[in-house]
């Protein structure tokens, strides 16, 4: 049986780069970040990335999520969150955001920001449940699809 207990979360390392990039292409297709961006995200001192695996197959990545917070800043960003289809619907998205917020609080962050496609109601619903509210729109932010981004903010 698959349930939330079937999965494990841990801190990402640069050794996860290849699998993260491959998963990113499957999940985000046209919006996928290039390997160079992922490398700098995973190597940065100012980010905090978590990855999801199956508990009984820890070498295979099924998801990831990341925080960016600069030293001394009271604002932070959810950089991204993505789960393979097989790992959706088990509360992992909620757990990942909860843990990013905990780390952000530990770093002194008060306000969190993120961008989300206007045509992604599932992610918006997750974010709203954490108190995120729309504060703006970035026209045509997602290219080449030319889809707008909602900019959302939450006090944590
Ligand atoms: C968005 C995503 C991370 C959610 O992760 P998840 O583990 O499936 O979500 P959870 O099981 O933790 O559910 C959390 C909340 O998300 C929303 N949600 C999840 N699945 C949903 C669905 N099928 N329909 C509507 N809302 C849904 C609900 O608000 C849910 O809260 P609830 O269970 O109290 O109703 C996941 O769907 C995903 O990776 N999607 C593709 C990538 C993506 O869109 N990333 C966001 C980019 S901004």
From TrEMBL:
| Pfam families hit by this protein | Acetyltransf_1
**Residue span, N-acetyltransferase domain:** 7-156
Kindly state which keywords UniProt assigns to this record, in alphabetical order.
Answer: Acyltransferase, Cytoplasm, Ribonucleoprotein, Ribosomal protein, Transferase
Q: Which InterPro entries match?
A: AcTrfase_RimI/Ard1, Acyl_CoA_acyltransferase, GNAT_dom, YpeA/RimI_acetyltransf
Gene3D superfamilies according to UniProt: 3.40.630.30
Instruction: Determine the domain of life of the protein's source.
Output: Bacteria
Family per record: Belongs to the acetyltransferase family. RimI subfamily.
State the name under which the record lists this protein: Ribosomal protein S18-alanine N-acetyltransferase
Source taxonomy lineage?
Bacteria, Bacillati, Actinomycetota, Actinomycetes, Micrococcales
| Gene name of the encoded protein | rimI
